[in-house]
Amino acid sequence: MNSTTAPMVAPAVAENDRFAIQCEVLRLSIRPIGPVLLAQYLLNCGVAALFAWQYSLSRALVWISLITVVTVMRGFFPQRLPDPFTPRSLRDAQRTHTVRTGIWELAHGLAGVLLFNPGQPEQQLLLGLMLMGMTLSSAFSVSFYIPATQLAITLLLAPVIVTGLWLGTPTMKAVAVIGLGLTAMMWKLVAERSRQLEENIGLRLNERSLREQALAGLRASEQAQAERLRFFSAANHDLRQPVMAIGLQAEVLRQQLDNGADAPVVQHTVASLARAQQALEGLTNQLLEIGRIEAAVDPLQPVAVSLAPLLNDLARQAGDGRVTVRCPADAVAWADAVSLRRVLANLVDNAVKFTPRGRVLLAVRARRRDTGRAWRVEVRDGGVGIAADSQERVFGDFEQIGNVERNLQRGHGLGLAIVRRLAAQLGIQVSLRSAPGRGSVFGFELPAAPADAPVPPPAPAAQPRYGAARALRPGLAVLVVEDNAVVADSLCALLQQWQVVPRVYASAAEALALADLRALDAALCDIRLPGALDGIALAEKLQRQKPSLAIALVSADIGEATQRLATERGWHALRKPVQPAELHEVLLQAQQPATGR
What residues bear 4-aspartylphosphate in this entry (predicted)? Predict the structure, then answer.
């Protein structure tokens, strides 16, 4: 992409620079020069007086009258420039400036006709030399615009050159020829000087642009730093709440057990612990998701996505039948399936949380756009609604308009922030229509998939896997390779509760050296392990030594590549914090071969 866009951008930037330089050159050319005008006018009066005395009073008066008119025009009626400039207005202003400059210098140049004395060779030479001197002195101040300056030089010298070649003495003719050479030389000098001026203006504009960019970058960096500080301060606040709840409930549970509390009381405390753990896990997952989005670690892979199965699956996951779907069967969009599912899941979750009563509707309808067919997807709820002045804020980090009390059961204010980031990656615009007490409608449009794009089959709905009816075989042997002692102890406690026999080691080398692989039914391998071998290398060695061993990789950093590797090798991949139901299902599958023996 970069190789194709760069050549198109560079000329545009150069054209913009050229336009700015031309505007600045024109501004410099018409700036007021009062003292210079006065000095030039007084010199012209002296020239008129000299030739009035030596040649003709009437001709001198005509010439100085012309000089007076153009001096008044330039001094008291300056050219007005448009603000701001456009390419067309700049061209018009340049033409106007060139005409005004030509009139100015033509009035001076007419001295070569009005003050030319055919009978006096000395006066001819004096006039020619004076006009050449006027050219040398004024050529670099009359204008900085090359066409205007070159026209001014020509109109200043042409009358005396033509008159000298026609009516002058041989000496005057020679001076006229010199005037032709002077004209050509001045054209070249003026062009070179003007180009140097344009280069200097370009450097100054570039320096100004760089300075403005640096200041803008500094302001953006300061704003980003302030946003990060606010984000992490809010994250720190919300993370500490479930941590504090877990600590307090753990102490309550300890005292209840010490005092022999009744089972219902203990169960209530355990349930509170589970809720705090779920809140902590949910916030941690959302923070991790935001980090992955901003780091762009999951590249987009647009495919044809059938919307009806996706929306129906999200409605089933929401539970209790509150979410309904209205979607045409032929609605197939072109998008990244994973990112689209995350956007819709967050919107549905947000709608359910803030709709205490009533239903949530997932609606899809067709749209016609200039770029082709599209699908409009909307998540409608009848919840508390959002005021107009707060609708932009709801997409911010840790913003919860309808949860002032910060009830953790209603989330942490990151769901819509994730939607905003994902939408930016997908190139879609999420709109919001809402009013207090009248619910909210979040919507966006997706391009329709090409007619020949293959539509992958929908993923099968997840079935409940964990329950008392599917008990594990007592004595199931499980290898646990985990270097974190707290995590290892927790895994052991849960496995022992299930009457599973854990074999715990802190490193891959220790497990390979001490574990009896023949007696093992499953292996839980943390990926990040101390020593030369990580969990993946350990899993490969275990599989070679015992192909029937059920292996699960365990890590908080299981990405798409790790998941794909595990699928190819026939392993499981469990993301920390591991859910008991997921672990239970892995062990159920591990005991199936043993049950059949």
Answer: 526
Identify the top-confidence range among 251-265, 357-371, 443-457, 565-579. 565-579
| Residue 65 confidence (pLDDT) | 92
The answer to whether the CB of 273 falls within 8 A of the CB of 253 is yes
User: Same structural domain for residues 244 and 368?
Assistant: no
Cβ 573 vs Cβ 553: under 8 Å:
yes
Domain boundary among 247, 276, 295: 295
Looking at residue 551, what is its pLDDT? 93
Q: Do 366 and 496 lie in a common domain?
A: no
45 and 142 belong to one structural domain:
yes
DSSP bridge partners of 588: none
412 and 283 in contact (C-beta within 8 Å)?
yes
Q: Does 596 score more than 70 pLDDT?
A: no
Domain boundary among 250, 265, 295: 295
pLDDT digits (tens, 9 = 90+) for 289-312: 666 666 565 677 888 888 889 888
pLDDT at res. 458: 58
With both helix axes pointing from N to C terminus, report the angle between 146-167 and 170-258 in degrees, rounded to the nearest 10: 180
Per DSSP, 81 falls in state P
Could you tell me how far CA 199 lies from the centroid of its own chain? 33
If one counts the domains in the chain, the total is 4
Q: Could you say which DSSP state residue 384 is in? A: S
| The residue to which tokens 């994902």 are assigned | 422
- Count of C-beta atoms within a 10 Å radius of residue 148: 25
**Can you count the helices (H) and strands (E) in the chain?**
17, 12
Q: What is the CATH number of the domain that holds 402?
A: 3.30.565.10
Residue labelled with tokens 């591991």: 578
CA distance 265 to 269: 6
Residue-wise DSSP of 95-157: HHHHHHHHHHHHHHHTHHHHT--TT-HHHHHHHHHHHHHHHHHHTTTS-SSHHHHHHHHHHHH
Domain of residue 69, residue span: 9-212
Q: Is 260 left (phi over 0), alpha (psi -120 to 50) or beta?
A: left
| 42 within 8 A of 68, measured Cβ to Cβ | no
Mean of pLDDT values over 160-174:
88
Query: Is residue 558 situated within a structural domain?
Result: yes
Q: Is residue 226 part of a domain?
A: no
Residue 564 is assigned to a structural domain of this protein: yes
Whether residues 208 and 327 share a domain: the answer is: no
Residue 167 lies in a domain: yes
Distance CA 447, CA 441 (A): 20
Contacts (Cβ under 8 Å, ≥6 apart) of 127: 51, 111, 112, 115, 116, 117, 160
Q: If pLDDT is split at 50, 70 and 90, which confidence band does 136 have?
A: confident
Q: Three-state SS across 189-202? A: HHHHHHHHHHHHHH
Mean of the pLDDT values across residues 347-362?
83
DSSP designation for 473: P
Q: Are 367 and 374 in contact (CB under 8 A)?
A: yes
Q: Which of 52-61, 156-165, 362-371 has the lowest mean pLDDT?
A: 362-371
> Is residue 67 within 8 Å of 105, Cβ to Cβ?
no
